[in-house]
Design goal:
alpha/beta; 8 strands; 7 helices; globular; Rossmann fold; six-stranded parallel sheet; 185 residues
Length: 185
């Protein structure tokens, strides 16, 4: 059996960065990519022997509360439904008086630590470029849970360096990403 992996997605961070880079994350492809252990060449051959079987024990996407004005609620509900259909658990992080970013970061941190503490994972694939997770990544790596960060090039340098492996989402387009066509009118 391969590694037991958890996929933890900082939904707001990845959505913001994907818009910046003009790309859309294909979460179904991402889940498949994570389960097989990493990248493959376009012909399907393994990249540097990095691919191997993984058991995905948790796939979670964390979102902040929706805006109070209701804008984008239809898109948000569709996104949440799609994620659930793909097998992701959707966690809406909210706490009275606590900004959504802080609540999302807190929930990701608690879940990552619980997964590690309970011995449920060998590896965590963290989709976020937020440097606020640097200490968490160092702690998890220090207790034997390997953390791979999957994000866009604008990811925090400290976070990239703390990770066991950094996957640049813009370089694995065929595996997990779709470029947004900008030549359409």
């Amino acid at each position: 059996m391969g590694d037991r992996v958890a996929i933890l997605v900082d939904g707001n961070n990845i959505a913001h960065s994907s818009r910046r880079y003009g790309m859309i994350v294909d979460y179904g492809a991402l889940l498949s990519w994570a389960a097989r252990g990493g990248p493959r060449h376009p012909d399907g051959s393994l990249v540097r022997g990095l691919s191997y079987a993984r058991e995905v024990v948790a796939a979670r996407v964390y979102l902040g509360p929706s805006g109070s004005n209701g804008s984008g609620n239809g898109k948000r509900k569709n996104f949440m439904s799609l994620m659930q259909d793909l097998g992701f658990e959707v966690i809406v992080s909210a706490e009275e008086g606590n900004p959504s970013k802080t609540a999302v970061d807190r929930d990701i941190t608690i879940d990552a630590l619980l997964l590690a503490y309970n011995g449920q994972v060998d590896r965590i694939l963290l989709l976020s470029g937020d440097g606020g997770f640097t200490r968490l990544v160092k702690v998890l790596n220090g207790v034997g849970v390997q953390v791979e960060v999957c994000a866009f090039p604008n990811a925090s340098k400290a976070l990239r360096q703390a990770a066991r492996r950094f996957w640049d989402l813009t370089t694995i387009v065929g595996a997990t990403m779709t470029k947004i066509r900008t030549d359409c009118t």
